Structure formats: structure tokens, C-alpha cells
Amino acid sequence: MLDPKLVRSNPQAVAKLLLKKKYVLDVERFNSLEVERKQFQVETEHLQNERNLRSKNIGKAKAAGEDIAPLLAEVSQIGDRLEVAKNKLKAVQTRLDDILMGVPNIPDASVPEGESEAENVELRTWGEPKKFTFKPGDHVDISSGLSGIDFDAAAKITGSRFATMRGPIARLHRALTQFMLNVQTGENGYEEVYVPYIVNADSLRATGQLPKFEEDLFKLSVDQDWYLIPTAEVPVTNLVRDQILEADVLPLKFVSHTPCFRSEAGSYGRDTRGMIRQHQFEKVELVQVVEPALSFQALEQLTGHAESILQKLGLPYRVVALCGGDLGFSATKTNDIEVWLPGQQAYREISSCSNCLDFQARRMQARWRNPQTGKPELVHTLNGSGLAVGRTLVAVIENYQNEDGSVTIPEALVHYMGGEALISP
Q1: CB of 363 within 8 A of CB of 408?
Q2: Cα→Cα distances 209→194, 216, 227, Å
Q3: Is there a catalytic annotation at residue 9?
Q4: The whole model's pTM is what?
Q5: Which of the residues 43, 50, 214, 349 is marked catalytic?
Q6: Catalytic annotation on 277?
Q7: Annotated catalytic, 192?
Q8: Fewer CB within 10 A of the terminal residue: the chain, N end or C end?
Q9: Where are the alpha helices (DSSP H) in 113-266?
Q10: What confidence category does residue 56 fall into, taking pLDDT thresholds of 50, 70 and 90?
């Protein structure tokens, strides 16, 4: 959530900055509610002072042996008026909070202008797409020949946008997960954490999924405030909710492997073939909690940690800076990593690495004690996939396919595959 003081002090300036995200802040409505809030705030404070003064007079009158009944009646009447004023103030404050909870984070000045992903800016590339001596297939056709991924079975069991995996492909999927976790914990200094796959609404509000994106979530029941996680970012970041961290424990660097569940409500008709966009998929998620002065440095570090997985697997990719129109709700700046898929002859997103500044921390009251001031201050939070396991599996299958329908195992994964270096039809 944005700092309410910032929005109150200059809503027009905030609205102008938010236009880069294609978000229109209703300044007129906000200002109108803010005028009401101030009026009720002044009235509440006046009545509180008046009641306190009259209460003191009751004590004095009682000590002097005077009749205090009239004073008691006045205090009671003032108390009734105060209760009405408090309720009005609370109602206005709730409406203001509802507005602020729906306002996205302000994009950083370095974020490029743009309406959609078509206007994202390429920052760098790594590796050269392989030149095949045959027409490369996509992962659906290749895995079908390997009897590895079965979308029809999943559709029978559940519905569309699910997959089952068997044999060496299922093992390759597991191998990728173990490899990613080992690299991040063994080389990049992350602490592995295991977290619940079900979270409450408070956790989703804290990281920005609620209230704005409820349609993208799977709620377990109308009577229970529980949701399946859309990403490990939610439970992992909430580990520091309502905490004051000492400076010497920062930065916190967490890595977690979880399934993720998304309704994909806004993607009707997109990526209906294969594993690119599923209702259930797995990710290895990276989360950092850092001192405010270091968050942009941490963003580049976190992006590099995600990139290292693709480099070790020998998968060509590019890094792009998201434009304002493609930037996520909680992020001030995001670097997307897009892996090359020969079957599509295109780069496709495999990781989004975002700096959220104090936007999430304010919602969850996650703070650190600044040793220079001795006072608690909001931390900065960052997150990114390191990587999306299913999409990495797709990239390995397509980039390491052979003309006979087999798939070569990347050298970095052979150990995790029990020494097997080839998946044959």
C-alpha cells in the first residue's frame, strides 16, 4: 500500500505518476473523502477534549459537595455525540482505506513507458538459439512421442489446463526442482523454507493479491477464509508480517518450492496448448527482505540468481524491463527473464523479478530497527521465480530435442537423473 501521507499531501502528483501504470486515481473522490475525514477528526478531538474537561469538573464539584447530576448528564450527552462522530470518522476512513488498498505501487522513474508487453525493453541476452538441421517440434509433440506428458488424462481427471507426467519426464521435472533448490541454497545464500499451500485472506492482502485480484484465486469454500496459493511469494513474504527485525539479520533470503494455483481468469484463449499456462504448476520462488537503501541493488542480484539457473542449463534467454502498462500491481520495477523456445520460435517468460519497495511491508507491518535512528522502519521486499519449473521443463525438452524424437539431458541434470543422459522414444 502507498503511504497515505504521501497520497494526502499531493494526490495530483501521485495520480500523474500512476498514469505510467495506466491506472487512473479518482482524485476528486479521494479529496472529497479526505475533507470529510478531517472534519470528523476535528469534531472527534473537540468532543473528546470537551468530555475530558467536563469529567474533571465532576470531580471538583463532587469534592465541593455540589450537585453533580447536571454535569453527569452533560458528559453523557457529549459521549453520545462523540460515539456518533467516531462512527462517522471510522466509516470515512474505511472508504479511504478501500481506495488505497486498490491503488498500485508507483513505478520507478527508470520504468519505460508503454501500454503492454509488446513495449517492454530488452536489457540483455545470453546464449544463441540453436540452429537445428530439422524443423524443431514443440514440447507437446515431443513429449507425446516420449509418452511423458498426458493432457487428455489430466482433462479426464480434472479439466483443461492441467497435465500429468510419467516416467523420465516426471523425473526430469523433479530433477529440475532439486537442481534449482541446490543452486540457490548452496551457491547463492538462500535459506530453504517449507510453507503452507493454503493461506488466509490477510496474507493475500499483505502481498497485494487481495482485494483487487480475487477472481484469479482459488477459494476453498464460501464459508472459510482460505485460498490456494497463487505463488510462494505470498506465504514466504508473510513470514515477516508484524515483525520488527534487527539490522544484523538483514538481508533475509528465502527460497521455497511449492505448487501454485491460478484460475487464469484474464487469459481466456491464451496459451491453451501445452504447459505454458496451467491452473496448477510448480515454482521455485526467491524472496528477499532488505534494508531500503539496498533494494535496487538486491533486484539486480536476485535477477542474476534466477539467470544462473538458465546459464547452467545452457538455455538461451533474454532479460527485459517491463514497461509501465505491463508492470504488476505491487512492483515498482520488474525484470522479466524470457527463455528461448524453438517450438514457438519466440522468447517466453520464465521468471519475473520485482522490487516492491515498502508497498507490501506497509500492508503487513514488516519493519526493521534502523541502528542510526533506533526506530522501527518499513523494510523493502523483493521476489522472483528461480524458476517456474514447468516452463523450464518445456525449455529443456524443446532446446535439447533430437531429430529421432529423443531428448538429451543437460549435463547439469545428469546426476539428478541417476546418470541417464538421454530420454528416448
Answers
A1: no
A2: 21, 9, 11
A3: no
A4: 0.93
A5: 349
A6: yes
A7: no
A8: C
A9: 139-145, 151-157, 167-186, 201-207, 233-237
A10: confident
Residue 59 binned pLDDT confidence (cut-offs 50, 70, 90):
confident
Three-class SS state of 358: coil
Phi, psi at 168, each rounded to 5°? -60, -30
From the candidates 295, 352, 354, 385, give the one annotated as an active-site residue.
Answer: 352
d(CA 75, CA 49): 11
Cα dihedral: 229, 232, 237, 238 (round 10):
30
- Residue 255 near residue 386, CB atoms below 8 Å: yes
- Report the Cα 127 to chain-centroid distance in Å: 29
54 catalytically annotated:
no
Instruction: Judge if the upstream peptide bond of residue 327 is cis by omega within 30 degrees of 0.
Output: no
Residues 6+ apart with CB under 8 A from 32: none
**pLDDT tens sequence across 355-397:** 999 999 999 999 999 999 999 999 999 999 999 999 999 999 9
Distance CA 229, CA 218 (A): 8
**Catalytic pick from 354, 363, 391, 398?**
391
Q: How far apart are CA 347 and CA 340, in angstroms?
A: 4
Nearest alpha carbon to residue 258 among 291, 282, 292, 277: 282
Q: In what order do the strands lie in the sheet with 376-378?
A: 244-246, 367-369, 376-378
- Give CA–CA dist 93/219, Å, rounded: 28
395 three-class SS: helix
Helix axis angle, 69-101 to 27-63, nearest 10°: 160
Q: Which domains does the chain have, with CATH numbers?
A: 4-101 (1.10.287.40), 117-423 (3.30.930.10)
Query: Of the residues 95, 174, 205, 277, which is catalytic?
Result: 277
Give the residue ranges of DSSP H helices in 110-166. Answer: 139-145, 151-157
Q: How far apart are CA 266 and CA 268, in angstroms?
A: 6
Residue 270: DSSP 8-state: S
Choosing from 37, 161, 171, 262, the catalytic residue is: 262
- Let me know if 262 is a catalytic residue: yes
**Which amino acid is present at 4?**
P
